[in-house]
Design goal:
Layout lengths: L1 E2 L13 H7 L9 H12 L9 H13 L4 E11 L2 E12 L1 E12 L14 H18 L4 E11 L15 H12 L6 E8 L8 E4 L4 H13 L6 E6 L1 E2 L3 H4 L5 E5 L22 H20 L1
Parallel strand pairs: 4-5, 4-6, 6-10, 7-8
Antiparallel strand pairs: 1-9, 2-3, 3-5
The protein binds zinc ion.
Zinc ion binds next to loops.
């Protein structure tokens, strides 16, 4: 993703948070962020996953193998990119619910083609949220959900092949949003929740400006339930990401993104984006809030 305009920073919250967390610890068990971290670590261990490269094939196989007993659909298509025609693969995993409608949770899983010659593994940028969605799947499988169906989408081709622009980015989400617009799926989507770069140890999730207001409100409400509100929406900024093709088609959508990664964002799209910058605690926060947000959407 890329930042569209200016950014603002927040600091100084992390010292007070352990105490805050302890005071507000809810009675119910927390989301298994440690498991999400394990999945992310194993996925990042594949190495760079740039489209057309060998790591990308391994990443596809990892996803296929992980969800082999679930309702997995592979959405393969050819994208016209600055390096030519490239075959890309989105993956969709469906967990059926009793209510008529769909909640989509998304992430991208590949790494940047322009970073193919360095050891960029995208631990936070791609792997962390892939692991997060895999751990969320652990909570969804084996039963018919009481609420809406939940579909997980692992997007390919989010990153630019050359340099970010409307036509050189978000290939997988633009393809799928168009396809689902054509076959009637989009009208059935109650909410689209995108996750990106929210494994960061120093978690501060921004309020992405084009995200749907009532979803911002529900996520805020969910965060408050756990005493997590200081991790959310302390600053607002527009970020171009995989939610936009859905926003543009009228789907209620939110981008949960922390585009403030390392000092002056210095870990973003660099070899410093490694698993030691990601924490199970941040993934627990994400999972708790997303599961509670799903519950609130079902009640809405
Ligand atoms: Zn990125």
């Amino acid at each position: 993703m890329i930042l569209a305009l200016t950014r603002r920073f927040t600091a100084g919250l992390s010292i007070a948070l352990p105490f805050f967390f302890a005071l507000h610890a809810p009675a119910q068990p927390h989301f298994n962020g440690a498991k999400a971290y394990e999945y992310a670590r194993d996925f990042a261990a594949i190495g760079p996953r740039w489209p057309t490269g060998p790591g990308h094939v391994k990443a596809e196989d990892f996803i296929r193998s992980h969800f082999k007993h679930d309702q997995l659909e592979e959405d393969t298509f050819v994208a016209n990119t600055p390096i030519g025609a490239v075959t890309l693969h989105n993956f969709i995993v469906r967990f059926p619910g009793k209510k008529n409608g769909i909640i989509v949770l998304g992430t991208h899983y590949e790494t940047n083609y322009p970073l193919r010659n360095v050891n960029f593994v995208g631990a936070n940028d791609g792997a962390a949220t892939t692991g997060l969605l895999m751990a969320i799947a652990d909570q969804l499988r084996g039963k018919t959900l009481d609420g809406y169906s939940v579909w997980l989408v692992f997007f390919d081709g989010e990153e630019a092949f050359q340099s970010w622009s409307a036509s050189d980015s978000t290939f997988g989400s633009r393809h799928l949003a168009a396809k689902w617009g054509g076959n009637g799926t989009l009208q059935r989507i109650k909410a689209f929740i995108l996750t990106d770069m929210i494994g960061d140890k120093d978690l501060d999730i921004q309020h992405e400006s084009r995200s749907t207001g009532w979803l911002i409100d529900l996520v805020t409400q969910a965060a408050k339930k756990y005493g997590y509100q200081h991790y959310f929406f302390q600053s607002e900024e527009p970020v171009d990401d995989d939610h936009l093709p859905f926003v543009q088609r009228g789907v209620p959508a939110i981008d949960l993104i922390d585009l403030d990664y390392g000092p002056n964002n210095s870990y973003h799209h660099t070899v410093k984006d490694t698993m030691d910058k990601v924490s199970a605690h941040s993934l627990t926060i994400d999972g708790d809030v997303i599961m509670e947000t799903i519950r609130l959407i079902n009640q809405r």
